[in-house]
Structures are given as C-alpha cells and as structure tokens.
Amino acid sequence: MPEPLVYLNGEFLPYADARIPVEDRGMQFADGVYEVVRYYLGRPFRMADHLARLVRSAEGIELPLPPLDLIEQAMNQLVERQGMSEATVYLQITRGPAPRLHGLIDHPTPTVIAIARPASTTRPRPTLRVVTASDDRWARCYLKTTMLLPNALARERARRLGADDAIFLRDGFVMEATSSNVFLVRQGRLLTSPLTNYILAGITRGVVLELAAQIGIPVSEEPIPAHWLYQADEVFLTGTNTELGPIISVDSRSVGTGQPGAIYQRLLEAFDALTRASQPLSVRSG
C-alpha cells in the first residue's frame, strides 16, 4: 500500500516528509483535539456534525482554530487527490510548538494535521467480545481531545483477556467503550446512556438515535446499570470506524442468542441506506 499523503499546516506532503517540532504541545501535553470523518462513495458523512463537535472540543480547551472552510477543504482534497471512494480522514489540531512550560501560551500557532486512509465497508460486521473496565479517565470525556492513554490501556487489557474492546463503568453505570458509544436492547427498547461529561457525543450515536425514531424503534437515553449488559437481548457499539458493531459477549457472558439481534440488523440496514444515499460533497451549517 502506498504511503498516504499528509496535510500539514497548509501543505500536502508525502508521509515520510511530514514533520512537527519536538516541542509541539500535542506531543508534550496531549494539548490538542481531533476528529475522524468517514467518506462513503467519495463523500464525507456528517461533516457538519464533525466540524461542530470540533469547535466544541476546541472551545473546551481554549484552543483557537483555523477557519473551518480551510479544514473541510483540506480533508476533502486528501480524499480526492488520492482517488479514494471509501476512506477515513483523521484530523488533529494542537496548540502548536512552544517551550515546555505549564499553562497555556499567548498567541499560539496551531499545528493542523490530516491523514486519509482507505476504508472498507465490511458486511456482515465482525462480531465483538468486550469486557468491562473501571473508568479511570479524566472528567471531561465529552471533549474529543488527544489525551487517550487510559483508553489505549483499557483496549490493551481487553486484548490480553481475549476481547476486542472494553466498556467503561463508573459508579456501577455504563459510560462508553474505548472509542465508541454503547447501545443495548432490553425488553424491546433501544437504550443508550445519556450524554454527560463522561460520554462523548458520538456522531454515529446521534445517527442511530435519528434512525431508530424514523423506523419506529422505541428508544430511551437513560442511565444504564452495569448488570443490564448481562441481561440485554442485544448490545452493540457505534462509532465512525466501528459503524455499528454487534457485541456477542460481555465479560465472557453470552449476549442474547450469541448472534447479532433483529433490532441491530434493522438499524444497520437503515444506516447503510443513509450512507449510500445521494448527498453533496460538503454540507455544513452554522
């Protein structure tokens, strides 16, 4: 596979030529935000929502952003220049280079990085096994920052236990997975945890809530006790890369029939129809 192009501070560079200063605050302090945008048929999916969340995250850490139009154009051009039909674009914006001192810096020059890589739409989606983990992350998980070490450690612990991912529990309630939101089906209703400071407002999460309402699936955003994961008829994850990922076991306990459930299947079909629908290349509001 050829090396991807990298957008770095206004330039499109070969991957091997992209460099940032050693004292970039993204490396020194995880002082940055990011987004991952999925492209279907060469078109960005829910770009407006991703950019709106980028703004919220940046405001949450007092990080000035370049013009959103330039960011959007850069991501689109990465996909177009490399002739990709199915792709994911990773966008990261840090506070930029500065001497390593605690506290923020006056008049920062943000570092903007974007990389597009090929993606594939795998159907049926691979089934997942998860474990639960105590949530030891910081208290501002609603911001999509690059401070992801607790997530990475939880994912690695899950792998060592023979699982694919971990679901964070806090005070006996379900939060989210390491890079995805969590849904479950119980007594015919679709449930997901309400948005709090410990839960990221996932773009795909929002899409699934919209689709459920459209196709007549009862849905509720409410606190989910951890033991409901073991009693659920269905459990699945949602995320830009995950799309809708069916879970067949939690902590080595089978979920439902041990196969993706009927409500999950209905939502995945609706999701696929939406992502393949005709849409303009760039839709952004506000």
In short:
By secondary structure, the protein is an alpha+beta fold.
Mean pLDDT: 95
CATH architecture term of the largest domain: Alpha-Beta Barrel
Give the tally of β-strands.
15
CATH-assigned fold name of the largest domain = D-amino Acid Aminotransferase, Chain A, domain 2
Beta-strand share of residues: 25-35%
Key attributes of the depicted protein:
286 residues, alpha+beta, D-amino Acid Aminotransferase, Chain A, domain 1, D-amino Acid Aminotransferase, Chain A, domain 2, 2 domains, six-stranded antiparallel β-sheet, 15 strands, 29% strand, globular
What does this structure look like?
The protein is globular. It has 7 helices and 15 strands. It has helices at 25-29, 47-60, 68-81, 149-160, 203-215, 228-231, 262-275, and strands at 5-8, 11-14, 32-40, 43-44, 87-94, 111-118, 128-134, 165-170, 173-177, 181-186, 189-192, 219-221, 234-239, 243-250, 253-254. Strands 7, 8, 9, 10, 11, 12, 13, 14 and 15 form a 9-stranded mixed β-sheet that branches. It has a 6-stranded antiparallel β-sheet with strand order 2-1-6-5-3-4. It has 286 residues and is an alpha+beta fold. The chain has 2 domains: 5-118, D-amino Acid Aminotransferase, Chain A, domain 1, CATH 3.30.470.10; 128-274, D-amino Acid Aminotransferase, Chain A, domain 2, CATH 3.20.10.10. Mean pLDDT is 95; it is low at 280-286.
